[in-house]
Structures are given as structure tokens and as C-alpha cells.
Automatic annotation (TrEMBL):
This is Enoyl-CoA delta isomerase 1, mitochondrial. It is found in: Mitochondrion matrix. Keywords: Acetylation, Fatty acid metabolism, Isomerase, Lipid metabolism, Mitochondrion, Signal, Transit peptide. The keyword Ligase does not apply. It holds the Pfam family ECH_1. It comes from Branchiostoma belcheri. InterPro entries: ClpP/crotonase-like_dom_sf, Enoyl-CoA_hyd/isom_CS, Enoyl-CoA_hydra/iso. It comes from the Eukaryota.
Length: 332
């Protein structure tokens, strides 16, 4: 009789845990909270260590853990993040196939990720890369700018601003491991980082907005000037140049080249050199350089949104975007 009771209790407890796990996967917030209170975070993490969160609210309260580091999740699977607890280095991988186009979902996920890592006091560095080699990011999702209402374009551009502010203004060491092509807003992400390592070979990087009759915003132009100098930036921006990786290295647009299969490893090695510098002194020095531009964008944010909205919805720009989309369609 006693054995039967023990067996029954064991089966009941096992079924209960399965039910709770299923509820967690489906995103039941109440059960998540109740379970955490009941059994404690450490036990919960041990049992559900492979469980992926499905909501930002869950992320903020219950980051999941694995043996070799902390796994952050976002509201979708477009950003994959793992932090090594020993070194404090987080690797952020964009995962929006086929070319990591920066649509609202990806940009919001990136911003959320940057902000979460910023708040994590044990995190010291961030490596930004692509889950799929050969394309770091193809830039903005151009469909979000074609035949859309002015309000839609304005909201889209604000997401671009917020993503850039979170990355450019980060206290962390930020390193772009550019493992593929990096045009337009892909280059924007790279420029926002402290250091850029790019894959050798037939890969290109640059701000080619003028080729679509678009104009890079003042804050992106200034970032380009700060990185490669006024004259080179002026020429590159006017003609919408996309540079091969060796030319980008020569200009200072990227800081180091590596074989595509070694970009991540080289980035990790470089970060470890930067980690030898005390965090506080490095971060204060970084902010002294970047604060004026950060403050200017925050002050002129609405002006910048209105400028982009008005320019993008112009008939000539819409026609250029249409022609670009038709060319892409013809290539398929």
C-alpha cells in the first residue's frame, strides 16, 4: 500500500511538472510566477534550463541559464544571445533570414537585447554578428518604406533611432563581427560599435543610401565622419559607395580582417585585449566622445523623424524604391 502511494505521488508530481512546463512554453505568466515563488529560481532553472521564453516580460524577470553561460531570449527568435558568465562577453546573433533585413521585429529585439545587457552588471562586452554567414545585415527592410503611410514611416524610423541610441550609447565594449555583406543600415550597426572585424573576400560595406534617392541622417553622417574622416566620408556618402573589405580596412571603416570562418574567434580574442582595461575608465572615455552626438539626436529626435518621413514619402523616392524592388524580383 505504501509503495502504491509513493508511486502515485511520484506519477502525480511528474505529470504536474509536465503540465507546468507546457504552460511555461505557451507563455502562461501566472504559473511562471507561482512556480518561481514556490520552488525558487535555482531549482526552476535546473529543471527548465533548456526552456525558451516567449515574452519580453518573462525575459526581464526570469533569464534562463545554461552550464556554460547565460541565455537571454527575446520576444521572437530573430536575435540569439549567449553570455559567457566567466568572461562577461555576450554574443548577439541576428537571425532574420535570408539577409537579416532590419524590420520592426528585428530592430525592437536588438534594442531590447542591448538594453538588457546594459543593465546586467556582470556583462562587460558585446559581440554583434550574424547567425548566417555571408550576410551581416542587408540594411533596412525596404518594404517598410514603400507605399506606406507617413505615420508608418515615422514609427519605423523611430525604431531605427532607438536601436542606434542603445548600441552607440552602450557602456559595454561593443564589437561588430561582420561575417558577410554589410550595406546601408548594416553598416550603421557596425559604425555604432567600438571596433569592427570583417570577413576577407568578396564582401562589401558602406552607406549606399543615395543610390535609392535617400539621404543618411545627420547622426549617421557624423558617425561616418568620426570613423573615416571628413573627406573620405563626404565622398562615400555622396556616391553611396560600397567598399570591398580590403578597401574598407585601408579607409579605416573596419579595423581588422579575418577569414570568414574565423571572424567570431578573432573578435573574441580582440575583446579579451580590451577587457584588460578597467571598465570605468574605458566607459567614461567612450561617453566623453559620444555624448554630444547622442544628446543631439535625443534633442532633435522628432525633427529627424519628420525629415526622414517627408523625404521617404516623396514621389521620386518611392519610384526609386519601386525600381529597386523590381530589380530584386527580376534576379530571383
Amino acid at each position: 500500500m505504501r509503495d502504491d502511494i509513493i508511486k502515485f505521488l511520484f506519477q502525480f508530481f511528474f505529470l504536474f511538472l509536465q503540465a507546468v512546463r507546457n504552460s511555461l512554453i505557451s507563455g502562461n505568466e501566472t504559473i511562471k510566477m507561482a512556480l518561481t515563488i514556490a520552488v525558487g529560481g535555482r531549482v526552476w532553472r535546473k529543471f527548465f534550463k533548456t526552456f525558451p521564453f516567449r515574452s519580453n516580460s518573462a525575459l526581464k524577470r526570469f533569464p534562463t541559464c545554461r552550464a556554460n553561460g547565460r541565455l537571454y531570449s527575446t520576444s521572437s527568435d530573430v536575435v540569439l544571445v549567449r553570455k559567457d558568465e566567466e568572461s562577461g562577453i555576450a554574443t548577439v546573433r541576428m537571425n532574420n533570414p535570408p539577409v537579416n533585413s532590419l524590420n520592426p521585429t528585428l530592430m525592437v529585439a536588438l534594442r531590447s537585447c542591448f538594453e538588457e545587457l546594459e543593465k546586467d552588471k556582470t556583462c562587460r562586452a558585446l559581440i554583434l554578428t550574424s547567425q548566417k554567414p555571408k550576410v551581416f545585415s542587408a540594411g533596412l527592410d525596404i518594404l517598410q518604406l514603400y507605399q506606406k503611410s507617413p505615420d508608418h514611416v515615422a514609427q519605423f524610423w523611430e525604431k531605427v533611432q532607438d536601436m542606434w541610441l542603445a548600441l552607440y550609447g552602450s557602456r559595454l565594449i561593443t564589437m561588430a563581427a561582420i561575417n558577410g555583406h554589410c550595406p546601408a543600415a548594416g553598416c550603421l550597426l557596425g559604425l555604432a560599435c567600438d571596433y569592427r572585424i570583417m570577413a576577407e573576400g568578396n564582401f562589401r560595406i558602406g552607406l549606399n543610401e543615395t543610390q535609392l534617392d535617400l539621404v543618411a541622417p545627420f547622426w549617421l553622417r557624423q558617425t561616418m565622419i568620426d570613423v573615416i574622416g571628413y573627406r573620405q566620408a563626404e565622398m562615400a556618402l555622396m556616391i553611396g559607395a560600397l567598399y570591398p573589405s580590403d578597401k574598407a580596412l585601408q579607409l579605416g571603416l573596419v579595423d581588422k580582417l579575418a577569414p570568414i570562418e574565423d571572424v567570431q574567434t578573432v573578435a573574441e580574442e580582440e575583446v579579451k585585449n580590451w577587457l584588460k582595461i578597467p571598465d570605468q575608465a574605458r566607459a567614461i572615455t567612450k561617453m566623453a566622445s559620444r555624448k554630444p552626438l547622442l544628446d543631439e539626436l535625443r534633442r532633435r529626435k522628432q525633427e529627424d523623424i519628420q525629415t526622414f518621413r517627408d523625404e521617404t514619402t516623396r514621389e521620386s523616392v518611392q519610384k526609386s524604391i519601386q525600381q529597386y524592388l523590381e530589380k530584386l524580383k527580376a534576379k530571383k
